TrEMBL record:
Compartments where located: Plastid, Chloroplast
Protein name: Small ribosomal subunit protein bS16c
Alphabetized PANTHER family for the sequence: 30S RIBOSOMAL PROTEIN S16, SMALL RIBOSOMAL SUBUNIT PROTEIN BS16M
Pfam families: Ribosomal_S16
Entry-linked InterPro entries: Ribosomal_bS16 (IPR000307), Ribosomal_bS16_dom_sf (IPR023803)
Keywords noted in UniProt: Chloroplast, Plastid, Ribonucleoprotein, Ribosomal protein
Family: Belongs to the bacterial ribosomal protein bS16 family.
Keyword check for Plastid: yes
Main localization category: plastid
GO CC terms in record: chloroplast; mitochondrion; small ribosomal subunit
GO BP terms in the entry: mitochondrial translation
Superkingdom of the source species: Eukaryota
Length: 82
């Protein structure tokens, strides 16, 4: 099963995350199918590829709780319905 989830980058105490679509059986830093976003918790920056996320969700992907929260804060689902 494919899941959109966080992939950690950055130095110690300066974590930056990429939101990637990855097979759920792969480890966190494993080979991703596609990069679909970016999240920097320190600067509160978020960049999401809405089309790519919708593509995977339509095909049965289930997001992790963290990615779901980030999407809600970015109002992804409000933008998708308009």
């Amino acid at each position: 099963m494919v899941k959109p989830r966080l992939k950690r980058y950055g130095a110690k105490r300066r974590a930056v995350y990429r939101i990637v679509a990855i097979d759920s059986q792969f480890r966190r830093e494993g080979k991703a199918i596609q990069e679909i976003g970016f999240y920097d918790p320190q600067k509160e920056q978020t960049r999401l590829d809405i089309r790519a996320i919708q593509f995977f969700l339509e095909r049965g992907a289930k997001t992790t709780e963290t990615v779901c929260d980030i999407s809600k804060r970015a109002k992804l689902f409000d933008q998708a319905n308009t």
